[in-house]
Amino acid sequence: MKKILFLSSVLGMSLFIFINSGCGKPSHNDGNAPGALVKLEEAQKSATDKFNLKKVVSSELRSLTKEERAHLTNEQKNLTPVYYVIKGENNEGNEVTVYISSNSVKDHFSIP
User: Fold this and answer.
1) Is residue 89 within 8 Å of 54, Cβ to Cβ?
2) What share of the chain is helix, strand, coil (3-state, %, to 5)?
3) Distance CA 94, CA 53 (A)
4) What is the pTM of this model?
């Protein structure tokens, strides 16, 4: 009987510690967490404003390819290679691909 009581108290205490130790709780996402600093909506608005896009066809967040990196300035090459790639149509009806950095809307370029 003492053994059962002892084992149940050990099991109860272990369960109590597990529940209250933070296991299984989502981590708090603070400002220093990794990830995109620019939201998709901000990138699309920047692309629309800066490159006169009248229609956004597609958007994705990804690392630049080797060919796309060739279009970066020397300063941009030292920054993150993760960009929003936004394909759209400009006011003249031409298809344009716009690249907006995931860290700053000030860092952008396009490939016609």
Assistant:
1) yes
2) 35, 30, 40
3) 9
4) 0.69
